[in-house]
Fold this sequence. Notes:
Oligomer: heterodimer
Low-confidence stretches of chain B: 1-46
Low-confidence stretches of chain A: 1-28, 134-139
Number of domains of chain B: 2
Largest sheet of chain A: 2 strands, antiparallel
Shape of chain A: globular
Structural class of chain A: mainly alpha
Distance between the termini of chain B: 28 Å
Strand content of chain A: under 5%
Largest sheet of chain B: 9 strands, mixed
Helix content of chain A: 40-55%
Order of helices and strands of chain B: HHEHEEHEHHEEHHHHEHEEEEEEEEHEE
CATH topology of the largest domain in chain B: Alkaline Phosphatase, subunit A
Strand content of chain B: 15-25%
CATH class of the largest domain in chain B: Alpha Beta
Distance between the termini of chain A: 48 Å
Structural class of chain B: alpha/beta
Amino acid sequence: MPPASSHYGLRSIVILAAIALSGSVGADDAIKPEDLTFFEERIRPVLVEHCYECHSANSKILRGGLLVDSRDPFRKGGESGPAFVDGKPDESLLIKSLRHDTYEMPPKGKLPDPVIADFVEWVRRGAPDPRTTATQGKLKPVDWEAAAKHWAFNPVTNPVPPEIQLANDRETQWTVNPIDRFVLSKLRQEGFHPAPQADKRTLIRRATFDLTGLPPTPQEVDAFLADESSDAFAKVVDRLLSSPHYGERWGRHWLDLVRYADSNGADENHGLPNSWRYRDWVIRKINEDLPLDQFIVQQLAGDLLPAPDDEKAAGDLITATGMLVIGPKMLAEQDKDKMIIDIVDEQVDNVSRTMLGLTMGCARCHDHKFDPLAARDYYALAGIFYSTKTMANRDFVSLWLERPLPSKDIEAKRVAHQAMIDQAKAELERLKNASAAEDQIKAQQAAFEKLEKEMPAFEMVMSVTEGTPTDLPIHLRGNHLAPGPEKISRTMPSILTRVLPAPAIAAEKSGRLEFAEWLVSPQHPLTSRVMANRLWMWHFGKPLMKSPSNFGLQSEPPLHAELLDWMAQELIRHKWSLKEMHRLIMLSSTWQMSSSATPADEERDPENRFLRRSNRRRLEAEPIRDSILFVGNQLDLQMFGAPSGTDTKRRAIYVSINRAALYEMFSTFDYVETDNHIEQRPATIVPSQALFMMNSPMVFDSAKSLAATVLSQTSSAPSTDQSPAIHAVFERLFARRAEPLEIERSLKFLQETDLLLASVPDPAERRLQTWSALCRSLMASNEFVYVD
Amino acid sequence: MPAGLGRRGMLSQCGAGFGALALADLLARTGFCSDAGSDSRHRAVSPLAAREPHFAPRAKRVIFLFMHGGPSHIDTFDYKPQLQERHGQPLPFAKPRIQFAQTGNLLKSPWKFRQYGNSGAWVSDLFPHVGQCADDITFIKSIHGSNEAHGGALLKIHTGSDTFVRPSMGAWISYGLGTENENLPAFITISPTMGHGGVRNFGSAFLPPIHQATRIAGIRKDDAGAMIPNLTNNAISKTLQSQQLQFLREMDHLRRPGVHTSADADLDARIESFELAFRMQTEAPDILDLSAESESTLKLYGIDGGPTDNFGRQCLLARRLSESGVRFVQVTHAYWDQHSELKEKHTELAGQVDRPIAGLLRDLKQRGLLEDTLLMWGAEFGRTPTAQGDNGRDHNPHAFTYWMAGGGVKSGFSYGSSDEFGFYAAEDKVHVHDLHATILHLLGIDHERLTYRYGGRDFRLTDIEGHVVDSIFA
């Protein structure tokens, strides 16, 4: 089905303006010789010199859709409308622009007055122009018919896990769930074999980092090793899923998508003192396994859902919408209309990338260059957010919206407190009227003022609310001062409404709730795919679809397209439960493979696209930091609440994210981008990371603490066997015991270091320093920061 | 040449002591987003290794002296006799649609202007030392931007966008050219402002994080010393540290014996990054240490305990980093935001920077570095010719002045002009995008070809704008 014809209607205006059409020039168009001379001598050279750079078929970039190198397109004008009014120079956009009345053309500086006078004369004569040879337009519009066939814009298919003939017992055992059938079928086509199952120590370490972002403790490892039941690993997964630290790990993934921070960044880096309440909401809801569809709807439109009686639940729905408010905003932008539309743009960009896997933001200034997303689609969606109130005011440095959390308790306290204030005030009046002693009046005044200050405050959360429902016009080239002629009704992107019709948006509503509910419809072609792909990425280190926030035409079709669709359907079948999906994935043989590889297979499939093995992956900044503290028994596991400074021992998710001055350790380990949606964390290897592991006080302190613990728990005499202590360090750091050669080399290191530190007189202190050096070196190892 | 090594000496010394092949190999593998993102086009290319520019460069590196707050162009380098004459009269044309603050009538400059050198450049008495260098300078007096608030304007100057999150120009240049010295970052910012965009002004946005600036603080007189995070520790000896690294390497080998596949590349590279870090911590402190500089050099920069001391140190450090091969060094001086007390504050601030800036320019020149080092001075905007109160000026993004020296620009030259009062850029206007395009061009980069693919689109420092102002090229 082609896009709605009205859609084409608007596009055609732009395209007609942008692309030269071959004009048929009949005899009527014959130019008088004197006009021809005038044009060739006075007009054409000026156009060539001053205008062609940006307004000809050979321009590298065509500006404003205006071509001036041939007659008909010039007459048609560009995005701003016709260039001339025949015979009326003063009303012609061309002349106004040359005079710098409207646009300032040429932008480098006004042409000399006599030249402008020539153009006035030329337009007065009717702009005679001999250049009838059609020039070829450069802009190729997106082919909507073809784009409509793009897999990701069509309904999620319902693939059946491949029925494959299992060649042997090993394969039969291997295919424990449908994921494995999809994977094995592809492996077979290429003649690959799945890597063997990872050993139990690797598995529990992988699982613990995967679900909590922390390493397992030696006790947890021992318990798992001792459990020989067939569902031992399932029990581990269940235990981790019920850990409160699960929400800290998976909440952080979500916070990456929605560019969480504790300060505004942008131009005025004000603190966002209540941002953390949204962060806590995310952690809690992930822990509660709030179904992902509701999780999304509440963040987009929680304030519009029926308010529950329970005030905590009612407050949660408001808190959820903080997602829309926490983005960076140009608070001191003095063009407040621009400020507002930029905030709307930020929301559209973030929501479309996060939920839809589409780069809608590109269509703000022009129709999307690669995807079937017209400027019209953008402004239809932007209207929804424009009709939503995000800012509390338009002051010089403007303030974002915060709303009180409902609390009967605080309300009652406020009423009671008001009574006290009233009473104090009455007493003050009485004293004044009675001409009491000045001291007495002063004291009462102070008491009254103190009471006023002590009025119990509501807890505030960042939140949106409904604004004035408004349809936006297209802003030409994204410029809010250049609105197009037509208001665009608020609705969803048309390439998607072909598959899932947009719900009607009543005139008095923003459409936010309608948009949110449309997003999570089981028939939506993108949301479940986008989310399933992200789940896969966070479990495997690499997504099934390579560009997790761009499912558009530029994206590479996934090798495991059927698996992706099956996962998307499975997410819906499991009622959008993340925890069910974790179980499904982690209990598959695919997830449990080891990372071992043969050179020949690596050569053929260097990116492991076929899922032959597990992907070894470097931990992100937060788990690295948390692990360093954790192994030294220094991590403070207290959850929730206002963010802490960078010297805190709490988990990284509670470290204040200051957009203007990010914690150095975070940026060193690739958590750099706090302003934007992060689709996937980079994993660079740079010397500053090595410097951190070599020299940072955090590593020093934690290594020392680990050394002290190990030495106190094992035999303290240097003459006795050191290997138990070495094993203890290894178990703490790597969830495994040291190999004999590793013991040998470690002993050598301890001896050498002991010699180097001979000047340290106290043997106990020397021993501690020696073992600290061992722990530090091992914490610097690859094994500590990679998950196999 | 004073104590310390010249640039070439420094580079050759850095080259000694480790295998060039191993380094090349390491650089080919480290630093890039090995696992991230959908954009694989640049994966195989090292972001650190020096890269060939698009065409023969005029400049190899940049020092950007950024005057945070917005010094008044019409009180420094853009002389407006009309302003003196029409003092107290209303501006005879319309003020901009959006203004940061309301201003009144025209306010004459409190400073005298005089002409310098053969070029006869007009410079106010705020900058007598820089004035004496006028014959080495190209002034661009028609710069214009779009944002009237500090934050937006800073972001515009640094990243080209006050609307979207974009990499800063230093990050683009690092990405485009790599570094001349692999033991140092390619992009360093000294004492940056953390407000008004903060890290975004020297961040890498969607470019690989390695291209973000390394911040150096602590260079001021009373500070403990210039700091790169975690560069040193006082707790253990170099010998112990080197023993630890040896242990690290051997333990890694025990863990991963045998043939390494491509799947091991990251782990190999990480082990080597420790070697690189070890070398960096050996070399960088020497560069950050100004004590080896001669008496006369310190004097040249005004490092004498007086008001020029702090900025002098920063300028001298900039030279040392630049001659050691750092591609883009920014030095920030604050805070030139005189809505009031224009006369007093501008006098004080100019007094802090005039001598150090002239000292830096002369020092670069006498060392032969000016030939291929672009020295650039400017701010996020200029100020209004109309008065705020009776001794202040408001922000003015519609016309302001940048100047450049060395790096292949003309000497004793002036380009473009603002209107007769300095409110709007008038002739040969140079937009911020044009400035960026021109800087890249001087470095041998075609601003339309320096692109990075992100989210399905190729991005540029100049977005879809930018004209190279080749009239200023020598």
